[in-house]
Write a structure and sequence with these properties.
Layout: E1 5-10, H1 40-48, E2 57-62, H2 66-72, E3 81-84, H3 90-104, E4 109-114, E5 118-119, H4 122-137, E6 141-146, E7 157-163, E8 169-175, H5 180-189, E9 192-202, H6 203-213, H7 215-226, H8 231-234, H9 243-246, E10 256-261, E11 265-266, H10 274-277, E12 286-288, E13 292-295, E14 301-304, E15 310-313, E16 318-322, E17 327-331, H11 338-347
Parallel strand pairs: 1-2, 1-4, 2-3, 6-10, 12-14, 13-15, 14-16
Antiparallel strand pairs: 4-9, 5-11, 6-9, 7-8, 7-9, 8-10, 16-17
Helix pairs in contact: 3-6, 3-7, 6-7
Length: 354
């Protein structure tokens, strides 16, 4: 018989996608980028509070980000923060969190969620997660597929098949990020959903699957389970692999199911997402700062985390971000290229800006 449902929120990250506001010690989920100065992590915790009680909400993060978790999500108990000794991608992260949940409840069902996604319809979101948890209680591995609204090339996709009695659909395959023409075909076909990165399973089922498809990781997790005091020594030896690549994509047809979701979802993958997260003025400018000024400017995104005034005159479709020690200016269409700046700073050893 399945036990209680737990939520595991992954809140690590390197702070690259929304540089310069996000840094290694303060990735985007800790930034006050939502209305009212709320953070993505704080909003994620608030959304799941109607699904499970606070004592069953856990957050996995780095040791130097624990204070940020406590500051931005104060309802999460300190003992529910699982420290990842070193970033090793999502498969080891989820495995480490599953061990902690398994210690509390050997029959637990786990919902694994990213901390940096935005949702418009919290009620619809909780209802979809509840359905996914119910399907997982039957022993299935479940994900949520977002019904696409555009031929998006920045997301992975799920090709789905027949619908089951529980309203879930069989995942035929995981699909990598497509080019524009392929994404348009996916949208027209109506059997492709965006891969949300949310997963649901009984903890024991997950660890069994890891043993089958990632034996090296399984061995390390087993050692940590036996000797938790050696976590800091053992965990960095884990392979740095995503749960999608390491496990999900290797499962045979019929082992993974998908619950479709429509609740106004955005994975906040770059600065351009602020145009959806925040309101804009009559000229389409999103001004995410108290000190933003626009004159004859259209479709721009302005963000400042300090007292600097940002003024945009006669420009269109730019992202302008100002912090105490850095300024970023780029076309909105190049928002995914922020990582190239971070790489440049790394190769030139300017680590104080990372």
């Amino acid at each position: 018989m399945a036990g209680d449902a737990y939520v595991l929120i992954m809140a690590g990250g390197g702070g690259t996608r929304m540089w310069p506001a996000s840094r290694k010690r303060r990735p985007k989920q800790f930034l006050p980028i939502l209305d009212g100065g709320r953070t993505l992590l704080g909003a994620t915790v608030e959304r799941v509070q109607g699904l499970v009680p606070d004592e069953r909400i856990l957050v996995v993060t780095a040791a130097d980000q624990v204070d940020e978790v406590l500051r931005t999500a104060p309802s999460v108990p300190r003992e529910n923060i699982v420290i990842e000794p070193q970033a090793r991608n999502t498969a080891p992260c989820i495995g480490l969190g599953a061990l902690e949940v398994l210690r509390r409840d050997p029959a637990a069902v786990l919902a694994v969620l990213p901390s940096d996604q935005w949702v418009r319809d919290a009620v619809g979101y909780r209802a979809t997660l509840a359905r996914a948890i119910d399907v997982a209680r039957d022993g299935a591995i479940v994900t949520i597929g977002i019904v696409p609204t555009a031929p998006e090339t920045g997301f992975g996709y799920l090709e789905v098949g027949a619908e089951t009695e529980r309203g879930a659909r069989v995942v035929e395959r995981f699909v990598e990020k497509p080019d524009r023409a392929t994404a348009e075909k996916y949208l027209a076909a109506r059997r492709y959903l965006w891969n949300s990165g949310m997963f649901f399973f009984a903890c024991k089922r997950l660890l069994e699957t890891v043993r089958m498809h990632m034996p090296e990781l399984a061995s390390i997790l087993h050692a940590i389970e036996r000797e938790p005091e050696r976590t800091a020594e053992l965990y960095p030896q884990a392979p740095s692999v995503s749960i999608d690549y390491g496990v999900m994509e290797k499962l045979p047809r019929g082992d993974v199911f998908c619950v479709p979701g429509e609740f106004g979802w955005n994975d906040v993958g770059s600065w351009s997402a602020l145009g959806e997260l925040r309101p804009h003025d009559a000229d389409g400018n999103t001004i995410a700062t108290e000190n933003g000024v626009t004159v004859d400017a259209r479709g721009n995104i302005l963000y400042s985390d300090g007292k600097r005034v940002i003024a945009a005159i006669g420009v269109e479709d730019l992202v302008i971000v100002a912090t105490d020690d850095a300024i970023l200016v780029m076309p909105r269409s190049r928002a995914q290229d922020v990582r190239e700046v971070v790489k440049c700073l790394e190769t030139t050893n300017r680590k104080e800006f990372l």
